[in-house]
Structure prediction request, 295 residues.
Amino acid sequence: MATKKPLAKEIPDVVYDDKGKPYKKGRFLGKGGFARCYELYDRQRNITFAGKIISKHLLKGSNQKEKVTQEVTIHRDLCHPHVVRFDGYFEDPENIYILLELCPRRSLVELHKRRGALTPPEVRYMTLQIAEGIEYLHARAIIHRDLKLANVFLNDRMIAKIGDFGLATMMEKGNERKKTLCGTPNYIAPEVLEKAGHAFEVDVWALGCILYTLLVGTPPFETKSLQETYRRIKSNQYRIPSTIGNTAAKVIRELLAANPASRPKIGDVRKYAYFTEYTPTHLPTSCLTLPPKFS
Ligand code: ADP
Prediction:
């Protein structure tokens, strides 16, 4: 028998943090597995945040609460231009509230839905920014473990920011391999599927999947069935269309190496010849709907 999920209560128009400071609820931004996201406006500072609001009722009876604590613990100290900024955290009897830097231009999912394959300069721009964000995380012994288009957000200046640390983990020893991952990452690496032990290389794999998807227009291992997709990931079966240049194909092949030890370290990704080709320093917001003309 299907068990009914308890319904989360409606969020009040004003929420208060531990010190009694009010935040005015604004636009609805979206809904995730456990969270609802709304704009939350701090009048004192005149800043609007993305408020990730998690109902405590929905967290009951599972290890979800520890996962939120883990997410907060990992995310709270991070500070980098390509990582969504964590501003604060509070709770009331109903909900947990996480205040995040607002990314009004949504995520790469919406950009991808609208535009399909991006132009190579845009792909290099996005990939390099995401790689910089990952490099910052790896330098702090953090593995994100769920890098995907939906977890790369865009601010008003079209700057890419990595968000959602719900599956992230911290490495304690240098040569440790993580054995478990509770959740289903979108661009899951073969060593995770094989339960062979995984580490930083899973983020490099996911970056390869992101680069491929942005450039080709469809994900490398996508099929109609998850089982078949997993079989292809395990056998490293994907095609690079002949229209993709050699420099891009080389990066894709190396990021998507079956053996995690053969993938480049995140700090070496930008050294590929592909990334010496023209890369804009900014992108106009018109890119959200139309391919830019680079002159
Ligand atoms: P999930 O549970 O799928 O990981 P999240 O809880 O991270 O999703 O986010 C839920 C929704 O809120 C998503 O649709 C996402 O686009 C939006 N969102 C999350 N973070 C931000 C942000 N910093 N700025 C703007 N929108 C955001």
Q: What stands out?
A: The longest strand covers residues 22-31. The chain has a mean pLDDT of 93. Residues 120-139 form the longest helix (20 residues). Helices lie at 56-59, 64-75, 108-115, 120-139, 190-193, 201-216, 226-234, 246-255.
